[in-house]
Amino acid sequence: MANNDYEARHLETLDRDLGRYSNLERATAYVSRPLIGPSVSLVFIVLASLMALIFFGESTNSFIVVIAAGFGAYMALNIGANDVANNMGPAVGANALTMGGAIAIAAIFETAGALLAGGDVVSTIAKGIIAPENMVSANIFIWAMLSALLAAALWVNLATWVGAPVSTTHSVVGGVMGAGIAAAGFAAVNWPTMSAIAASWVISPVLGGVIAAGFLWFIKARIVYQDDKIAAARKWVPVLVGIMAGAFAAYLALKGLKKIIKIDMQTALLIGAAAGAMIWVAMIPVIRKQSEGLENRNKSLKVLFGIPLVVSAALLSFAHGANDVANAVGPLAAIVQASQSGNFTDAVSIPLWVMVIGALGISFGLFLFGPKLIRMVGSQITKLNPMRAYCVALSAAITVIVAS
User: Fold this and answer.
1) Is residue 304 domain-resident?
2) Considering the entire predicted model, what is its pTM?
């Protein structure tokens, strides 16, 4: 009997100890989870700095380039955490993509866009906003770019922390302009280019809104308000996907292939038209099969717009990578060139390792910190069904492509 009581008390004590251990494990996991993102980010920044040291080599300016690479990596992480929410928020908010699927697609297409088509915007950020010839020396130019990069990164980091989807482009352009004014006065600013950039900030929302409204009107007139909605969707959804594919193919031909072969606008448009026609034909049986058994009501149309929405979100991610990687590596590319040759007035050349830092940084930032803002953009700012989300994503993609 005594042995049974002893065993019972022993088991009760063991249960309490195991319960405490389980609670301790949960508490440890809860405390350590917020530290994973910053820890991985810090490792990436250190690796980016080491990459700069390896590829740039040892010289009198190596330290500056290493620091600049770290700042560029930090900025790229912030872009991935903040800006990419605009690309995938509509698709996640409309339940066309899971959070994991959205992050995977965004990471792949952001990286591809940055590496294949990101060069032109990098040159604008590096040498187009401030006039290097008005700088007194290469050192002043380098420190101005370094200051701009750090200031923009800190601001975007703060905005991401409070959950505000601010524009990294505004942040970097303002930082570069402010640093140029502080270093060499108002004469340092390339005002014609700055005016064009500022005008684009006004024009792009209006243009995006007009394009989105136009597509939504077309979808409602040709599909939603038709008596046989499913038959109308079978006819027009493949056309809409073909338009997206054609726009992407033309853009890729102009920007992504220019390092291999020079393609003029007319040829690029022909390539886009051919690609769009092929995708249109290929999507007809896909949409027909997907529409089988669907009832003739608006809810059924949400299913048919799932694929177009995913494609438009992927296209927007590619365009965003091509456009916004410049915000991270534009100043870095200018610093590398000025540090390497002392020449800070000629057109900037962009080393591949600089672009890789920007592309990987955006992807890491997205993986580590993106879900919070993706949820906000997709569900908390406005409620989106797949048709509206498709119009939002496609109009944004076309606007960014034109701007890039």
Assistant:
1) yes
2) 0.76
